[in-house]
Amino acid sequence: MSLWAALAGGFVGTIVLTSSMRVAQEVGLTRMDIPLLLGTVFTANRSRANVVGYALHFVNGLLFALLYYAVFRAVGHAGWLFGLGLGAVHALFAGGALVGVLLPAVHPRMGNPWSDAEETPLLESPGFLLRNYGSRTAMGNLGAHLLYGAIVGGFAGHLNSWF
C-alpha cells in the first residue's frame, strides 16, 4: 500500500468522476455542474467560476484520496472492492451533507431553504442527495463515486487485486 499510489489513483479517479459527471450533464441526464457550483463560491463570473471550480474539484479529489489512504492504512488493506465500498460512503457524504447541506449554507450565490423572496440566487441548491437536479443525478453521483473509490483502492493496493 502506497501513499503515492493512492494519490495517483485520486488523480485518475477525479478525472473519471469529473468527466463522467460532465458527460451526464452534456447528454441531459443531470443539470448539476460541480465545477460551477464550487467556483461560484468565489466569483459570479461563470467562465472564471468554471476554471476555479475544476481546480478545486481536482484538489478535493486528491484530499479525498488521502482520506481513503488513511482508512486503508487503518484497516491494513486496500483494493478496488474496498475502495468501491468507500466510494459509496463518499457519494452519500458528498450528496447528503457536503453538497446538499454544507455548501448551500456557506455559498453566497446559492439559494437555500432560508433564502427570502428579496434574494435572487444564481444557483439552485442541490438538495439532499442532489434531488433538486433531477432523479438521475443521485444515481450518476453514486456511479461516479463508486468508480472513483474503485480506482483509488486499486491504485493504493498496487492493482494487485485487479488481476
For the structure shown, list the relevant keywords.
mainly alpha; 5 helices
What summary fits the major beta sheet?
A: none
Termini separation comes to 16 Å
Strand content: under 5%
Low-confidence stretches are: none
Helix vs. strand class = mainly alpha
Average pLDDT across residues? 89
What level of helicity do the residues show?
Answer: 55-70%
Give a nutshell description of this structure.
The chain is mainly α and 163 residues long. The chain is 67% helix and 0% strand.
Description of the molecule:
This protein is an all-alpha fold. It has one domain (3-162). 67% of the residues lie in helices and 0% in strands. The protein is built from five helices and no strands. α1 (3-26) crosses α3 (46-75), α1 runs antiparallel to α5 and α3 (46-75) packs across α5 (135-156). The radius of gyration is 16 Å and the shape is elongated. The model has no long low-confidence stretch (mean pLDDT 89).
Explain the layout of strands and helices.
Elements: H1 3-26, H2 34-39, H3 46-75, H4 80-106, H5 135-156
Helix pairs in contact: 1-3, 1-5, 3-5, 4-5
